[in-house]
Amino acid sequence: MTENPSEKMQMEASVRISDANCGRCMICPSVCPFDAISFEEKAGEVKLNIEKCQVCGICSSACPASAIETIYYNADSLLSYVRKTVHKTGSDKLLLTCRGTGSSEKVTADELDKRHFDNFVSVILPCVGRVPPEFLFKALASGIDKLAIMPCEDKYCRFKDGSMIGTRRLVLVQSLLSELGFKPDTLTITKRSIKAHIDSDRCIGCGNCHYVCPYSAIKMEASKVPQLDLKSCSGCGACVAVCPALAIKLDGFEYETISQQIRNYRSLIPRMRQKNKKPVILVLGCHWSEFSNLDLPRKTAVKNVVFEGLPCAGRVDTLHILEAFHLGFDGVLVAACKKDECKLEKGNEEAEQRIASLKKLLAEVNLGERLEMCFVSPKSAGDLDGHVKSFMEKIDSSSMRGAIKE
């Protein structure tokens, strides 16, 4: 595992409450799904326990005094991005989706074609509950004609009540838009959750999926293909990662989809290495372990880094790691949520065991030190970048330089 940079430097908290701006309305403690905000009567102050905070952003979007600041997906940065993209593309439709929906471009298009919703500006968020209503009205005033929002189904929300809270707000916004004379389809809400699918024609009945599923959503029956209970499936992807026949798919995170995204860098790796004189690193990261602003191509503090997001660290596939080395990546870093912060069921621990086993095998061909795993959290700004930098320096050290392809 990589050394934790936070032990050497104080990380900046990604969520802060301004006491000077706080009106003590007590809205934020009432909406926080994790009891991370409380009112201290003696001090007369609202306090945030950053250790309990999961950076869902619900408190910030609910604060009427704008006293809660989050460095991720704040309303101003979202609006600026939407305005620039509208000006550039001429689109008049905005799509907001939660990462937990697992909506790939194809899946999203299929869902929204039913409403003749195309040529849209797309923004993927950790949770739609972090979107303040005023942002939606400002977006409409900026040239957006239609809004489509795709939250998770309530039961599968990665932030407990985030989807439910966000949906309640959206319904109120719909009512207000109607009162103001907007068309009924100005704002549409489509709830969706990512699910696994088993291809019975490819399944060999090994049972790996049954044993690894943390939700007991896959049942084994004698001489039959495993049966998947979609109501119990939470879309973590653990079953996909251990299927030797590639018979299980997860919308947007299929084996072929991730593999192709990694292969897209085949021709770029030598150029990146030559230009910056540094190793080229692939980061396979859980969507919830790190928030990259606006989900644009990631701008890390370290160059030569390619970031591939996953629905959970449990989805990490050893075949993708081996393929990355085959393509020429100098190192692979797996980023997972910290041990007590997994948004699913111990997907980070499942990934840790898998990575440890693969490192032993890679050590046989002198590649063991090129694969590492780190545990990070979006509550500490720059947490992942610190691990990436440490891993990069390790690979670029004199003891390993000779093994890196020129």
Radius of gyration computed on alpha carbons: 22 Å
Query: How much beta, percentage-wise?
Result: 15-25%
Major beta sheet summary: 4 strands, parallel
Give the rounded overall mean pLDDT. 87
Helix amount, in percent? 25-40%
Shape: globular
Q: Poorly predicted ranges (pLDDT <50, ≥5 residues)?
A: 5-10, 398-406
Q: Going across the major beta sheet, what is the strand order?
A: 7-6-8-9
What's the SSE blueprint?
Elements: E1 12-13, E2 15-17, H1 27-31, E3 37-40, E4 45-48, H2 58-62, E5 68-70, H3 75-89, E6 93-98, H4 105-113, E7 120-125, H5 133-141, E8 146-150, H6 162-179, E9 187-189, E10 196-198, H7 208-212, E11 218-219, E12 227-228, H8 238-242, E13 248-250, H9 255-263, H10 268-276, E14 281-286, E15 305-310, H11 318-327, E16 331-337, H12 347-363, E17 371-376, E18 380-381, H13 383-395, H14 398-401
Parallel strand pairs: 6-7, 6-8, 8-9, 14-15, 14-16, 16-17
Antiparallel strand pairs: 1-18, 2-5, 3-4, 10-13, 11-12
What features would you describe in this structure?
The protein is an alpha/beta fold. It folds into 4 domains: 15-70, Alpha-Beta Plaits (2-Layer Sandwich), CATH 3.30.70.20; 75-189, no CATH class; 196-249, 2-Layer Sandwich (Alpha-Beta Plaits), CATH 3.30.70.20; 255-401, 3-Layer(aba) Sandwich (Rossmann fold), CATH 3.40.50. It has 14 helices and 18 strands. It has a 4-stranded parallel β-sheet, with helices on one face. Strands 15-14-16-17 form a 4-stranded parallel β-sheet, with helices on both faces. It has a two-stranded antiparallel sheet with strand order 1-18. Strand 16, helix 12 (347-363) and strand 17 form a beta-alpha-beta unit. Helix 9 packs parallel to helix 11 (318-327). The model is unreliable at 5-10 and 398-406 (pLDDT under 50).
